[in-house]
Amino acid sequence: MPVESIFHRLEALLPKVQKPIQYVGGELNSTVKDWDSADVRWALMYPDAYEVGLPNQGVAILYEILNELPGTLAERTYAVWPDLEELMRAEGVPQFTVDAHRPVRAFDVLGVSFSTELGYTNLLTALDLAGIPLLAADRGEDDPIVLAGGHAAFNPEPIADFLDAAVLGDGEQISIAISEVIREWKGEGSPGGRDELLMRLAESGGVYVPRFYDVEYHPDGRIKRVAPNRADVPWRVHKHTVMDLDEWPYPKKPLVPLAETVHERFSVEIFRGCTRGCRFCQAGMITRPVRERSITTIGAMVENGIKESGFNEVGLLSLSSADHSEIGEVAKGLADRYEGTNTSLSLPSTRVDAFNIDLANEFSRNGRRSGLTFAPEGGSERMRKVINKMVTEEDLIRTVTTAYSQGWRQVKLYFMCGLPTEQDEDVLGIADLAKKVIQAGREATGSRDIRCTVSIGGFVPKPHTPFQWAGQADHETVDRRLKQLRDSLRGDKNYGRAIGFRYHDGKPSIVEGLLSRGDRRVGAVIRAVWEDGGRFDGWSEHFSYERWMAAAEKAGVDVDWYTTREREENEVLPWDHLDAGLDREWLWQDWQEAVSGGEVEDCRWTPCYDCGVCPTMGTEIQIGPTGRKLLPLTVV
Amino acid sequence: MRYAKRGRLRFTSHRDISRAVERAVRRAGIPVAYSAGFSPHPKISYAGAAPTGVASEAEYLEIGVTTPCDPAQVRQSLDESLPSGLDVLDVVEAGQGGLADRLEVSDWEVRLPGADRELAEVAVEKFLAEGTVEVERLTKKGPRRFDARQAVLGLRVSEGADRIAAQVQGEPCVILRMVVRHMTPAVRPDDVLTGLRLVADFAPPVPPEVTRLAQGPLDASTGALADPLDLDRDTTRGGEAGPAGEHVAG
Question: Which segment of the chain is annotated as a signal peptide (chain A) (predicted)?
Answer without folding.
Answer: none
